[in-house]
């Protein structure tokens, strides 16, 4: 399953850069090895709002009782949005696989080959993937990603008969893009 997730995210980043944008941070919660869905961060403003928006990706994982999460982000994009220093290679697609017991950081650096502008006039690029770095057990995570990992495993206490369903609805209302797998569709 890991190779499929990596391939899917690399394809999404290739398509996004070709369209003139870096894909937004995404979380993929899993329960007993089954993918619950993909949740992309809501539209965020630079600074504190970005920190909060990324950390709040954890809500669906917590509501579903996920036992594993995979978070994906681009180094420079998150550093810029959160007004943080760039840590690690950039540009770089980062994927962290986490459980309550710990996490492993996987990094996929790339260089950008500039392509013709999109039909909307946006600059586009194609990633030229470099060899991945060695996976880092317990590797350093930027604060909003670390918060999302930590909060993913703290059960949500909602006074509602369907805390997972209401969390999905609330996140969608806040602007998060939520795509659940068939098994977890509300």
Q: What is the makeup of the main sheet? A: 9 strands, antiparallel
Question: Into which percent range does the helicity of residues fall?
Answer: 25-40%
The residue-averaged pLDDT reads: 91
Number of beta strands:
9
Structural class: alpha+beta
Number of helices in the DSSP assignment: 6
Overview of this protein structure:
The protein has 186 residues and is α+β, with helices and mostly antiparallel strands. 33% of the residues lie in helices and 28% in strands. Strands 1, 2, 3, 4, 5, 6, 7, 8 and 9 form a nine-stranded antiparallel β-sheet that branches. Helix 2 (48-55) runs parallel beside helix 5 (143-152). The model has no long low-confidence stretch (mean pLDDT 91).
Layout of strands and helices, then pairs:
Blueprint: H1 2-18, E1 26-31, E2 34-35, E3 37-40, H2 48-55, H3 58-64, E4 68-74, H4 75-82, E5 92-99, E6 102-115, E7 124-129, E8 136-137, H5 143-152, H6 163-173, E9 177-180
Antiparallel strand pairs: 1-2, 1-3, 1-4, 3-9, 4-5, 5-6, 6-7, 6-8
Short overview:
This protein has 186 residues and is of the alpha+beta class.
């Amino acid at each position: 399953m890991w190779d499929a997730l990596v391939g899917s995210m690399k394809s999404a980043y290739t398509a996004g850069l070709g369209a003139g944008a870096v894909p937004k941070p995404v979380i993929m919660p899993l329960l007993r090895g089954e993918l619950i869905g993909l949740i992309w961060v809501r539209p965020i403003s630079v600074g504190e709002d970005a920190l909060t928006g990324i950390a709040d990706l954890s809500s669906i994982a917590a509501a579903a009782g996920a036992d594993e999460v995979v978070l994906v982000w681009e180094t420079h994009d998150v550093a810029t949005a959160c007004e943080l220093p760039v840590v690690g290679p950039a540009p770089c697609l980062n994927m962290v696989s986490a459980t309550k017991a710990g996490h492993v950081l996987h990094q996929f650096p790339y260089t950008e080959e500039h392509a013709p502008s999109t039909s909307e006039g946006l600059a586009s690029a194609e990633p030229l993937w470099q060899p991945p770095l060695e996976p880092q057990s317990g590797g350093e995570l930027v604060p909003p990603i670390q918060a999302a990992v930590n909060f993913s495993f703290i059960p949500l206490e909602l006074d509602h008969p369907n805390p997972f369903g209401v969390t999905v609805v609330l996140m969608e209302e806040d602007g998060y893009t939520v795509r659940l797998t068939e098994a977890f569709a509300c």
